[in-house]
Structure formats: structure tokens, C-alpha cells
Amino acid sequence: MQDNMNSIIKRIMGFSIGPVVSAALAFFITPITTWIISPEELGKASMYTLALNLITMIIYLGLDQAFVREYYAQKDKKNLLWNSFIIPLILSIIAGLSCFIFYEDISLILFSEIDKTAIYLLGFSIPATLFHRYNLYIFRMEEKAKSYSLMQIAKKIFELVFLLFFLFFIRKDFVGVISSQLIALLSITIITVIYNKKWWFFKFKVNKQLLITLLKFGLPLVPASIFSWLLSSMDKVALRSWSTFYEIGLYTAAFKVANILNIIQIAFSNFWIPTSFKWYENKVPNEKFEKVNKTVSSVFTFLFSILVLSRNLIFLLFDQKYSDASILIPFLLFIPIMYVLSETTVRGIGFARKTWYIIIITIVSGGVNILGNFILVPRIGSLGAAISTSISYVVFFWLRTLFSRRLWFKFELNHFIVNIILITVMSTSTVLLNNSYLELVFVGLIYLYNHKNLSFIFKAFYKFISTELIKRKKQIQGG
User: Of 393, 221, 390, 400, whose CA–CA distance to 293 is shortest?
Assistant: First the structure.
């Protein structure tokens, strides 16, 4: 049992090192940026990222997810890669060229001014992002955790180096920020393509039957992805429509702090998604899935409470003009919390290949976010956007969970109910009272309720570290 647990922990840590170190570097980058550029400029950089995410999400046509789903079912995996990649590649080139042709209109929509350079950078970023995403999928599916983590870390180091160069020596505005991001992206994309050259440089054949299978899985995810984008990005769209770039800048700064937890969520998802499919194909008992559900719920809920408690200390690193953003942290943390919890409970939809359920889920939760932002943002600005987004992600979690439970097995819900109530009450009291002693009480309550699962994971990591140290000692003595 412990050997199996050690194997799981080793794989999680392998996939976590990159995202965690990347998060540390990103966290280091954010305060530097706030000391150099204004919230308005940071807000414009955020709108650029928003547009890039929307465009790339649409051009995938869900085929990137289809590649992951069919990986273990197809023998010719290189041919699978290219059949899932070729259509998004063509669409990315078309989208990039569109940026060069319609740069004035796109720039006015995003920035309320014409900035040719920014939109040209967007055009180059689209195909580069596509290659980067598929290269990371190759590392994930081949379970090359060290390579995956190394490339993640290298990308953030490039971003930091180029950011400092641009902001200090070229231009201190949002174009300087996005220029550094593009150069870092191009650099790491070239490296990963060379590293995975056996996947990219070979003669492939378009397999019509395989392409149909991929499209059947992927296309239903497109409208779902659009509504998912609305779910995750409507806050910034609403702030762009009904507020100011200053409010977007504050929101972006707070979002980057909350992104600390999001990076850990991504690390877990990178491990869990392929592992869950493998477990399902190998008929692993449902009790193991349920144990993962509860353990992840406990760990992330506890991390939530620690980040909320320490948010004011974190913002001491930021320039004073961003200090008002700290109040947004509790509700923004709902995004990674609800998403990662739903990643453990939603697996039944993927196992059953009922991806059309995702459409219903994202339409409803995205609609809730649109309505919430419409009501709250004009009244209370960035706080309204944060509250609305948190509510929509709670809806997102419950819809994913209940549909999956219907298609899969009736796993327990009480653990999730209690933890969601605890973090909701803690977030609300933080905004209304802003009392550190009361927040400390909530940290204690959350720990007490989750102590069994937290103790399990602490002991498992302790045994893992002890075992690894003993192995290393024997290797040294043997050498």
C-alpha cells in the first residue's frame, strides 16, 4: 500500500515541481511589475491575455482534449497527435493573419485605442501557444514529469529575464509586458519542439475515421469551452464594459495572487486526468476515486484558509497603489478551489464520453456569471466581479458533480457541502469584518474538520521523504 502511495506521490511531485516553481517565479514577477507600471497598464495587459485565451480556445475545436482522451486507446500515438493538431494549426494561422489585417478594430475593442504593435504580437502568439500546449500534452501523456516541470520552469525564467529587460530598457507599459511574454513563449516552444522532434518530424497520414472520432469527442466541447471562457473571463469583460482599466488592474493583481492556488490545481490536474483514465480502464475500485475526492477537498480547503489569512502580508510586497486588491482574494480563490474539486468528481462524464453534459454545465454556470456581473460590477466594481465569479464556480462544481454522479457512482457529498459552507462563511466575514483573529478561528475550524485527511497526506509525504532519503543514503554508501 505504501509503495503504491509512494509511486503516486512521486508522480504528483514530478508534475508539481514545474508548476510550483513557476508559481514562485510568477509571484516574484507580479510585485516587480506593480512597482513599475500602473494598474491601468496592467489592466490592458490583462485584456490582451483575455483575447489570446479566447482565440486559442476556439481554434482547438476540443481536439486537444480528444488527443488526451484517445491517447491510451490508439496504438499509433504520433499519427493521433497530428490528426488532432492539423486543423487547429490551420485555424491558428488564419487567426494570426486576421490580427494583422484587422488590427485597428481589435485594438479598439481591447484597449480603446489603436496599438498596432500589441495586436501584431497577438497574431504571432496564437500559433506559438498552440505548439506549446501540444508539447506539454506530450510530456504529460508520456508521463515525463521531469521534462514537463523543467520546461515550465524554463518558460517562467525566460519571462522574468525578458520582462526585466523590456521594462527597464525598452518601454515601461503593457506592450513591454506582453512583448516579454511572447519572446519567452517562442523560446520555450522552439526548445520543446526540438525536444519532441520524433513526434513532429515524421510522415503522417490523415486518418478520416480517427479524425471523425476526435471531432465527435471534441466539437461538443467547443460551445462548452466558449461558455467556460465566459465563466472564467466574464469578470474582466464586465469590468472592461462597466468599469475602468484601473479596476481591471487591481483585479488582475489580486487574481495573480489567487493564481498561486491555481498553479497547484493545474499540477494536480496534470497528474490526475491521465491517471483517472488509466484507473478506469484498469477497473480500479471506486473507493480509491472517492479517497482522492476527499483528500483533495481537505488539502485545498486548508490551503484556501491559509492564503486568506496571509493575504495582507502578501500585499506588502506590492506597490501601495495596489493595496485595495487584497480584499478580492477570498472570493477569487473560489476559482481554483471549485475547479480542482470538480476535477475529482467530474470524471464520470469523461468515462461515459457524454461530453454534451459539459455544454449544459457551462451554459448554466456561465449564464449565472453573466447575470451576476451585470448586477454587481456597475455597483461595486472589482469586488462585484469577484463575488459573481465565485458564485458561478460553486454552481459549476455542483453541476459537474451531480451529472457525473448520475453517470458514474453515488459517491458521498457531505464532505464537499461542509467545506464549501466553511470557505463561504470565511470569505463573507473577511470582506465584511476584515478581522484577522476571526480568520484564524476559521483556519482552526477548517483544520479540525479535515484533520483526518490532512493527517493522512502529511504522514504519506513524511513516509515518502523518509523512504527516499534512505534510498539515497544506501546509494551513496553503495557507491
Answer: 400
Place of cell 499519427: 79
State the Cα–Cα distance between residues 206 and 315, nearest whole angstrom: 52
Q: Please give the Cα distance from 25 to 34 (Å, whole number).
A: 15
CA separation, residue 5 to residues 2, 12, 26, 457, 459 (Å): 5, 10, 30, 10, 11
DSSP 173: S
pLDDT of residue 1: 44
Please, how many CA atoms are within 13 Å of residue 4, restricted to the half-sphere of its CB? 3
Asked whether the whole model's pTM tops 0.70, one would answer: yes
Helix (H) or strand (E) holding 10: helix 2-36
Q: What is the band of 3 on the pLDDT scale with cuts at 50, 70, 90?
A: very low
Q: What is the pLDDT of residues 247-289, one digit of tens each?
A: 988 898 888 888 777 777 777 777 787 788 888 878 888 888 8
pLDDT tens string 200-223: 887 778 888 888 888 888 887 787
Fill in the DSSP letter of residue 62: T
In angstroms, rounded to a whole number, what is the distance separating the alpha carbons of residues 419 and 416?
Answer: 5
Grid cell for residue 363 = 451554459
Convert 442-479 to b/e letters by CB count within 10 Å (16 or more is b).
bbeebeebbeebbebbeebeeebeeeeeeeeeeeeeee
Least confidently predicted of 246-260, 417-431, 436-450, 456-470: 456-470
Q: Which of 231, 435, 236, 447 is nearest to 327 (CA)?
A: 435
> Quick one: 253 exposed, middle or buried, by C-beta within 10 A (0-12, 13-18, 19+)?
buried
| φ, ψ dihedrals at 50, nearest 5° | -60, -45
